[in-house]
Design a protein that fits this description.
This protein is 30% helix and 24% strand. Helix 6 packs across helix 7.
Length: 337
């Protein structure tokens, strides 16, 4: 059997194929498949998977589950935050009221609560960078020595640095607290669709190569209107700290009303449904042992680095089946089918 890239179908004789993670490595994925050309493997990392590192829900999961060290987990996170009116707040604010500082977790020894915080040293580092930026852009010298002047400045008022566009506020304690308002980088739909397609290839490679999957492959490679993925959980208005992240991902492939669909679950909290394709005209029939794998949950254990078939209770199964059936109806209605 000739092995080709499952996305563009270029064969291994004309292009170097490389191993691609079913679950992105950024999410703790460990299982790879040798069915993706090097070009698209690199494109996925640049266009999609790099955005996962900036999503605060993903960042919190990686941190809470100890999948990545705290510094690496938070290093590229992007989100908007609101300065709370607390006595222990230290913040850096620019003129449009966007907060511009790095965050880390801080545990209050009295309440045992954990918050996103910034320290005085971090605020000084940020001020220095902002002053350097202003000096470079305007070719002037700013006469403000952060190391000498910061500690002697008053608390609780906005302090401008003349003649720059920089101002900041500090409070009496060295630790600050912030509340997340929203995401700047949600999970790209293409990432979830790619997980579903790669998992199908993992189950039975020839099935992943049929023409009926060309439409979703086009969507993954080139974007465009999303007719394929829906989110059932992963509520963006929730506080990421409040979610009960679990150390596994799971994928289930089903055939419903002649449509091949997938259910993808990340960290036990984020549930997505994916329409892979319309299989009315598919003539290929998977061997019996492969078809029996449909409608079962494959669980990717992040702690043991193993894949196993997961058992779920019937109520949960029926709920997820409803999600998938609803997805098929919704997608066909939107596409006029």
């Amino acid at each position: 059997m000739c092995i080709c890239c499952i996305f563009c179908k270029v064969d291994e004789q004309n292009s170097k194929l490389s191993k691609e993670h079913i679950i992105p490595q950024t999410l703790g994925g460990f299982q790879t498949l040798p069915y993706v050309c090097k070009k698209h493997n690199n494109d996925f990392g640049t266009n999609f998977e790099s955005k996962l590192k900036k999503n605060i829900f993903i960042v919190k999961a990686l941190d809470n589950l100890r999948i990545k060290p705290k510094k690496i987990a938070y290093d590229q996170a992007e989100f908007r935050i609101d300065l709370l009116e607390e006595k222990n707040l230290v913040g850096f604010i620019d003129k449009n009221e966007d907060v511009k500082f790095r965050t880390q977790k801080y545990k209050n020894e009295d309440t045992k609560e954990e918050h996103l915080v910034v320290s005085n040293e971090q605020i000084k580092t940020t001020l220095k960078k902002q002053i350097k930026r202003y000096e470079t852009e305007h070719e002037i010298e700013v006469k403000f020595d952060v190391d000498k002047e910061f500690d002697s400045l008053p608390f609780d008022i906005a302090i401008p640095i003349y003649p720059t566009d920089i101002n900041f506020i500090k409070r009496k304690n060295s630790n600050g607290r912030a509340r997340i308002l929203g995401l700047d980088n949600p999970i790209p739909f293409e990432v979830i669709a790619k997980i579903a397609l790669l998992h199908l290839s993992f189950l039975f490679y020839p099935l992943a190569m049929v023409d009926e999957l060309d439409q979703i492959k086009e969507f993954i490679l080139n974007g465009g209107e999303n007719y394929f993925v829906m989110i059932h959980s992963f509520l963006r208005e929730e506080d990421p700290d409040e979610l009960n992240y679990l150390p596994f991902h799971s994928v289930r492939i089903s055939l419903i009303d002649d449509s091949l669909v997938a259910l993808v679950n990340l960290f036990g909290t984020m549930t997505f449904s994916v329409v892979l394709g319309d299989f009315k005209k598919v003539t290929i029939k998977p061997p019996q042992d492969v078809s029996e794998l449909f409608d079962k949950y494959f669980v990717y254990d992040l702690e043991k680095k193993e894949i196993f078939l997961g058992d779920i209770d019937i109520d949960n199964y029926q709920t997820h089946t409803f999600y998938l059936e609803d997805l098929v109806r919704t997608m066909r209605f939107e596409k006029g089918g």
